[in-house]
Design a protein that fits this description.
By secondary structure, the protein is α/β, with parallel strands linked by helices. It is built from 12 helices and 9 strands. The chain has helices at about 5-10, 10-15, 15-55, 60-65, 80-90, 105-120, 140-150, 165-175, 190-200, 215-225, 240-245, 310-320, and strands at about 75-80, 95, 130, 155, 180-185, 205, 230, 255, 285.
Length: about 325
């Protein structure tokens, strides 16, 4: 039994538990972050292996995936300056949602005014999309989309937390196709995408190829989406998503995230890591006919966290090639 004086002593701690939720939430997010980091690491290894396979076979990755399904890949621009994106030749622009539910009716009006300003800067026929980055609620999402639909909102992106599948489904039903809905950049396996598909959460799925497990997991997601007539427009990922998109018919459009300070120039998504990273020009992504992903890793400043000699590499390689194969067949399940 807990003594009364102990209850009294800790009463304030108990009544302030709601205030402690952010601390607990931080711990939870730390574990989720660890999962995210693991998924990124798997993605890096997977992409390196696809690149190596392409170089061994002297084929681009899109050829390993079945070959090109399109001659050129159109691109839209994620930017704060849709007017400049239009001048650069992009086929559309995605702009940020600046205010959320906590900003009340005034924030909602400012969101609409911001979108109107963007619309006026590009004209009526240039596609505009809105990136909400997990910041809205179900009622707010529905209200905002309905107000922006007459202004030509092409799609509304990631408006709820990634695990709120029921919420996404509710918004999708409420809007009934008035605005396309997209999400998926913060799903890290095909199982999350299965949920999005089964619950009819979105019209377009957006895996990040460098987060979701690489090409191996991404092509499974694309196949699942295809069976349900859903489009896949990957988040960022640059050259890694471009090869995937060239190879599948339900991947019609590339995203270019403009990271230049004033959104007025084309800069590499991966900085200087790949000096020959393919960049959009006049609204197109054109891939060279080069093996693997067709890019060169800049090795300046790179180092192994743990040293491994050439002799150790060769020894491990020989062990892999000469591993003993199973001799007796057994039931596999």
């Amino acid at each position: 039994m807990v003594k009364q004086k102990e209850i009294t002593k800790h009463k304030s701690d108990c009544t302030e538990e709601a205030g402690r939720w952010p601390e607990m939430g931080s711990m939870l997010m730390a574990n989720l972050f660890n999962f995210f980091v693991c998924s990124q690491a798997i993605s890096a290894v997977d992409l390196a292996l696809w690149d190596l396979l392409g170089k061994l076979r002297n084929e681009p990755v899109y050829s390993l995936l079945g070959g090109k399904t399109k001659d050129r890949l159109p691109a839209y621009c994620t930017t704060s300056r849709p007017d400049i994106a239009k001048e650069m030749g992009f086929v559309g622009a995605k702009i940020p949602c600046r205010y959320g539910p906590s900003d009340g009716d005034e924030g909602l009006r400012m969101n609409v005014d911001f979108f109107k300003t963007a619309r006026d800067s590009v004209g009526q026929d240039f596609p505009l999309m809105l990136d909400c980055y997990m910041a809205l609620s179900v009622p707010y999402s529905i209200k905002l989309a309905r107000q922006l639909s007459p202004l030509g909102l092409k799609w509304m992106e990631e408006f709820l937390p990634p695990d709120d599948y029921d919420g996404y489904s509710e918004v999708h039903r409420a809007l009934a196709g008035a605005v396309l809905l997209t999400t998926g950049e913060h799903e890290y396996t095909r199982y999350g995408f299965r949920q999005l598909i089964e619950k009819k959460c979105a019209d377009i799925l957006q895996p990040d190829i460098t987060w979701v497990g690489g090409i191996t997991e991404a092509r499974r997601i694309v196949a699942m989406a295809s069976a349900h007539d859903l489009l896949v427009i990957p988040h960022g990922s640059s050259v890694f998503s471009y090869h995937l998109q060239y190879a599948f018919t339900n991947c019609p459009l590339a995203e270019y995230i403009n990271l230049s300070p004033k959104a007025d120039s084309i800069v590499p998504y991966f900085g200087g890591v790949f000096p020959d990273e393919p960049l959009p020009k006049d609204g197109w992504i054109d891939l060279p006919d080069k093996p693997g992903f067709g890019v060169t890793l800049k090795r300046d400043g790179l180092r192994r966290p743990y040293e491994r000699s050439a002799e150790q590499v060769d020894k491990q390689g020989e062990a892999n090639k000469n591993r003993k194969l199973p001799e007796k067949a057994t039931m596999a399940f």
